[in-house]
């Protein structure tokens, strides 16, 4: 059944394009919405805790094993929700039918790629789907054919190619050592491997590749440009799920299920995570472009996820996965907010805005909720995931890292308060008096995302027991 | 138990009800104001309803377990009910005052929403006996105070709101690290579990220090006090509500809850905390002597008086602790009265600069008398309420042989008399510099008159509150007087 999450998007693209292309133009958007809803419901209402082993033969020469565990389920859920949002935002932004049709087609390809990454169980198929996702993202970033966007897409391509090269090398080495590319075999071999040095090298370059893809701090160069120059709907999906799946999910999966922990690996993750958290937040403080600030904030929040992963404890992992989910929700929400502001006022420069909450109450209120959730202010969802991560760090005796991570959320609060002050809170500027609240698609997606943030925060104890603690059933090697 | 419903109502009626207010405000302002008043009054009634049972020695506990030592625990013991009754009572009066004060401004829906939500969060904080639960409500009060300080939307108001939020959030986060370290020791965030484990291993000084950061920042004590005077840009009922009567008492309350009723920090803190409090009391009293902005002056006075409360709670003597708790009540009434008087003066003369005022006693007699009554209570003149609390704090401290620090606080008390008389003199006496000044609206004047009268009455009938406070302290410490 889960194989259909990959296959249906592929087939939809074919069906939409081949026979009655002109007739299908209107329906592309609804196909996207329907697929995202199906995905959300499939994940929510499938039997819990089941570890299905779904073998499919969909390339005649290559067998691809598909698995699902709780980590994949949470990712699939995020992908569904964010895709739904991005499609609505795109519908609001572009009225040109042809362009919208093209956009939705690429979005469907992206969906197939993302779902594939989440479901596969061997390192080579993972690579294949990573490439599908990457290629679709290049197209989407440059979709509006603007100069900045091309530049950003080009940057992303170059860094992505480097990551790919590293990853392929690593896969080759691992194949050489283990004789197979499936997670289980590699993991078993690494535990007993005689080629210690070679294996460590393979692990190290794979980590680098995942860091580049996830935009973690020393490897983040492409990310702010890509997020801020791409069309608004693309920023939503890039920040919400693409980098999270391509980089962070891959990292969690590979570290937890394949490589296993070693003191050196823990230290690397801790340092990289802390760097991202602190430097990302500091960089965000200095921005005056709405989307660039959010981009740096993303880097900072991914740092928290890496820190949670670094602890290696059940608590830390639950925190990391929950923060991954929360980040998808609140960061997508903030990007939708920025899209709404940009489409209403025509600018993203925060110094030219003020007091918009009066004219755009829904955007204003939801952006407060998302900001506070991101800053880890209770009772919103972001508080709980940060709390879990900090508790896990503390219990793992990484005291200094716990304190830095906790204090960095003051920086997070600082830049979000500055964002609120410059854009929403405060007196309305006179030249903005004619502004109207944004359209239905924006309002719908903002409301849904805000409700999820509040709901996940208030219902946290239930989520913890039913959804997060079972994360431990991620099958280690 | 029969009271568990009452306890939940006292917290969740205002919290959930607050969300109705913006909707009600779209229909009619009168309906919204009535509902808001009803919600807060309901909270007051539910708190008072628990008084008899608690006085009879019952303690009500609601407990629901979750994973990881996170549980939903509410405890209504004498301390909590005492604090809840004060908070909801003062909120009721302040809300009543708001009907007059706030009626000509924009964003009233948000105002009432935030005020009622604030009280609900305050009630939640008071009754919660789990550190994470407490932290959640703690931060909700921070969010509401952020919105309320920036109520007028002026650029520097919003900046100051951000400052207050950041400073208290900094304290809160360090406090959270302290909580996590307690969790590491006890394996739970539940206060009763922490109490049990602290009897075996005393808690680390490091954790005490981190938690104190949070407490001091919320209670605006030196060196984290700077947000409070700046927050005076908020509407006056808000400064009264948040910054004098209730919000700043959160830190004091949590201090009593954690460091008096739950764990006993090392001997060293019985000197360190009074010293911090003494510095805070003296420095801010000095600032109040120099200040010319009326609301900043009262804010500095609050910082100074909070020092006295910390002094009472931290010297480790049961009489001083009782004095500290009584101080919360007396100071809450009197200081709320002062801020509300300041609001009337500010609204009717359009200035907060006391050097530009004068002779207002002729045009604003009720306000002037109420101001004087409240000021007497804050100064600690017998037979006003403030005298008894101050006396108990000093008597307890001397009983604990803290002579030098008591002397410093005595100087602080003397400075209090000086700056309050100076303020009264400049505002109400002397030559009238303004002719157009008039008395405030009915709801505003009634509110300050009630608070002024209460400042006196609470002193005359001090037997009842002090009896209850004694009972509270003996419950907290497990000793008899």
What would your notes on this structure say?
The complex is a heterodimer of chains A (477) and B (481). Chain A is built from 19 helices and 2 strands. Chain A has 477 residues and is mainly alpha-helical. A two-stranded antiparallel sheet of chain A has the order 1-2. In chain A, strand 1 and strand 2 form a beta hairpin. The longest helix of chain A is centred in the middle third of the chain and has 32 residues, at 147-178. Chain A is globular and about 70 Å long. By secondary structure, chain B is mainly α. Chain B has helices at 3-18, 21-27, 29-55, 78-101, 108-127, 131-149, 155-186, 191-200, 205-218, 227-230, 236-245, 247-260, 269-290, 294-314, 318-349, 360-363, 365-379, 385-399, 403-428, 442-460, 463-477, and strands at residues 60-65, 71-76. In chain B, strand 1 and strand 2 form a beta hairpin. The two termini of chain B are 30 Å apart. The mean pLDDT of chain B is 87.
Q: What integer is the average pLDDT of chain B? A: 87
The class by helix and strand makeup of chain B works out as mainly alpha
In which range does the helix fraction of chain B lie? over 70%
Instruction: Give the overall form of chain A.
Output: globular
Structural class of chain A: mainly alpha
Strand content of chain B: under 5%
Distance between the termini of chain B: 30 Å
- The run of helices and strands of chain A is HHHEEHHHHHHHHHHHHHHHH
Q: How would you sum up the major sheet of chain A?
A: 2 strands, antiparallel
What average pLDDT do the residues of chain A reach?
85
Rounded to an integer in angstroms, the radius of gyration calculated over CA atoms of chain B is: 21 Å
Annotation field: number of helices of chain A: 19
List the helices and strands and how they pair.
The complex is a heterodimer of chains A (477) and B (481).
Chain A: H1 3-17, H2 21-24, H3 27-45, E1 53-59, E2 62-67, H4 70-93, H5 97-119, H6 123-141, H7 147-178, H8 183-192, H9 196-214, H10 223-229, H11 232-259, H12 263-285, H13 290-311, H14 314-345, H15 361-374, H16 381-395, H17 399-424, H18 440-458, H19 460-468
Antiparallel strand pairs in A: 1-2
Helix pairs in contact in A: 1-3, 1-5, 3-4, 3-5, 4-5, 4-11, 4-14, 4-18, 5-6, 6-7, 6-11, 7-8, 7-9, 7-10, 8-11, 9-11, 10-11, 10-13, 11-13, 11-14, 12-13, 12-17, 13-14, 13-16, 13-17, 14-15, 14-16, 14-18, 15-17, 15-18, 16-17, 16-18
Chain B: H1 3-18, H2 21-27, H3 29-55, E1 60-65, E2 71-76, H4 78-101, H5 108-127, H6 131-149, H7 155-186, H8 191-200, H9 205-218, H10 227-230, H11 236-245, H12 247-260, H13 269-290, H14 294-314, H15 318-349, H16 360-363, H17 365-379, H18 385-399, H19 403-428, H20 442-460, H21 463-477
Antiparallel strand pairs in B: 1-2
């Amino acid at each position: 059944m889960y194989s259909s999450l990959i296959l249906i998007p592929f087939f939809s693209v074919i069906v939409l394009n081949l026979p009655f292309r002109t007739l299908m133009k209107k329906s592309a958007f609804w196909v996207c919405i329907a697929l995202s809803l199906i995905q959300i419901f499939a994940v929510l209402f499938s039997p819990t805790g089941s570890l299905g082993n779904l073998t499919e033969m969909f390339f005649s020469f290559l067998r691809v094993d598909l698995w699902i565990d709780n980590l994949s389920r949470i990712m699939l859920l995020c992908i569904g929700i964010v895709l739904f949002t991005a499609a609505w935002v795109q519908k609001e932004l572009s009225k040109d039918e042809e362009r919208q049709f093209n956009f939705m087609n690429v979005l469907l390809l992206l969906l197939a790629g993302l779902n594939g990454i989440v479901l596969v169980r061997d390192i080579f198929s993972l690579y294949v789907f990573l490439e599908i996702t990457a290629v679709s993202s290049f197209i989407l970033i440059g979709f509006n054919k603007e100069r900045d966007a091309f530049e950003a897409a080009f940057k992303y391509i170059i860094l992505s190619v480097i990551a790919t090269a590293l990853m392929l090398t690593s896969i080759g080495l691992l194949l050489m050592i283990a004789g197979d590319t499936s997670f289980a075999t590699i993991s078993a071999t690494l535990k007993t491997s005689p080629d210690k040095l070679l294996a460590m090298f393979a692990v190290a370059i794979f980590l680098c590749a995942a860091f580049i893809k996830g935009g973690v701090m020393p490897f983040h160069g492409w990310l702010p440009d890509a997020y801020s120059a791409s069309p608004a709907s693309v920023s939503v999906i890039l920040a919400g799920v693409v980098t999270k799946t391509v980089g962070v999910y891959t990292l969690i999966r590979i570290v937890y299920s394949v490589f296993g922990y070693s003191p050196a690996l823990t230290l690397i993750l801790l340092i990289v995570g802390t760097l991202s958290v602190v430097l990302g937040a500091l960089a965000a403080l200095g921005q005056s472009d709405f989307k660039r600030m959010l981009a740096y904030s993303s880097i900072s929040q991914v740092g928290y996820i890496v820190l949670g992963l670094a602890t290696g404890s059940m608590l830390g992992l639950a925190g990391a996965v929950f923060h991954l989910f929360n980040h998808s929700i609140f960061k997508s929400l903030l990007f939708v907010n920025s899209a709404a502001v940009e489409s209403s006022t025509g600018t993203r420069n925060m110094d030219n805005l003020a007091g918009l909450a009066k004219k755009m109450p829904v955007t204003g209120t939801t952006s407060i909720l998302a900001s506070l959730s991101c800053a880890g202010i209770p009772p919103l969802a972001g508080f709980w995931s940060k709390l879990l991560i900090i508790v896990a760090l503390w219990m793992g005796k990484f005291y200094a890292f716990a304190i830095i991570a906790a204090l960095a959320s003051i920086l997070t609060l600082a830049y979000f308060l500055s964002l609120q002050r410059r854009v929403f809170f405060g007196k309305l500027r006179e030249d903005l008096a004619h502004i109207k609240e944004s359209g239905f698609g924006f309002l719908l997606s903002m409301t849904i995302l805000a409700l999820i943030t509040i709901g996940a925060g208030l219902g946290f104890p239930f989520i913890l027991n039913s959804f997060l603690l079972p994360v431990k059933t991620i099958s280690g090697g | 138990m029969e009271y568990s419903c009452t306890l939940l109502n006292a917290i969740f009626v205002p919290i959930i009800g607050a969300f109705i207010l913006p909707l009600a405000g779209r229909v009619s302002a009168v309906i919204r104001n009535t509902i808001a008043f009803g919600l807060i009054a309901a909270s007051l009634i539910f708190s008072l309803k628990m008084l008899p049972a608690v006085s009879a020695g019952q303690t009500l506990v609601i407990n629901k377990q979750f994973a990881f030592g996170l549980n939903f625990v509410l405890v209504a013991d004498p301390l909590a009910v005492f604090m809840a009754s004060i908070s909801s009572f003062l909120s009721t009066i302040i809300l009543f005052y708001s009907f007059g004060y706030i009626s000509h401004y924009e964003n009233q829906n948000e105002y009432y929403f935030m005020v009622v939500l604030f009280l609900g969060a305050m009630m939640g904080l008071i009754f919660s006996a789990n550190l994470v639960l407490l932290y959640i409500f703690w931060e909700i009060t921070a969010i509401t105070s952020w919105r309320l300080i920036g109520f007028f939307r002026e650029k520097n108001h919003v900046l100051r709101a951000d400052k207050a939020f950041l400073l208290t959030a900094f304290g809160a986060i360090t406090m959270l690290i302290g909580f996590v370290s307690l969790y590491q020791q006890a394996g739970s965030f539940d206060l009763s579990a922490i109490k049990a484990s602290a009897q075996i291993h005393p808690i680390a000084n490091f954790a005490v220090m981190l938690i104190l950061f949070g407490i001091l920042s919320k209670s605006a004590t030196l060196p984290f006090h700077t947000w409070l005077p700046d927050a005076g840009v908020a509407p006056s009922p808000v400064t009264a509500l948040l910054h004098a009567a209730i919000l700043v008492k959160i830190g004091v309350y949590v201090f009593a809850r954690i460091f008096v009723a739950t764990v006993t920090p090392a001997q060293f803190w019985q000197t360190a905390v009074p010293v911090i409090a003494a510095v805070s009391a003296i420095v801010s009293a000095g600032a109040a002597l120099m200040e010319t902005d009326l609301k900043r002056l009262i804010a500095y006075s609050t910082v100074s008086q909070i020092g006295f409360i910390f002094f009472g709670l931290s010297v480790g003597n049961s009489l001083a602790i009782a004095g500290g708790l009584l101080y919360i009540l007396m100071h809450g009434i009197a200081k709320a009265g002062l801020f509300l008087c300041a609001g009337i003066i500010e609204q009717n003369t359009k200035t907060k600069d006391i050097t530009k005022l004068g002779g207002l006693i002729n045009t604003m007699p009720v306000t002037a008398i109420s101001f004087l009554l409240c000021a007497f209570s804050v100064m600690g003149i017998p037979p006003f309420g403030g005298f008894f609390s101050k006396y108990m704090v000093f008597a307890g401290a001397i009983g604990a042989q803290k002579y030098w620090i008591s002397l410093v606080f005595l100087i602080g008390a003397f400075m209090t008399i000086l700056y309050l008389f100076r303020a009264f003199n400049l505002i109400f006496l002397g030559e009238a510099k303004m002719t157009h000044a008039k008395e405030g609206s009915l709801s505003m004047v009634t509110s300050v008159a009630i608070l002024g009268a209460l400042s006196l009455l609470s002193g005359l009938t001090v037997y009842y509150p002090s009896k209850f406070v004694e009972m509270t302290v003996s419950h907290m410490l497990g000793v008899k007087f």
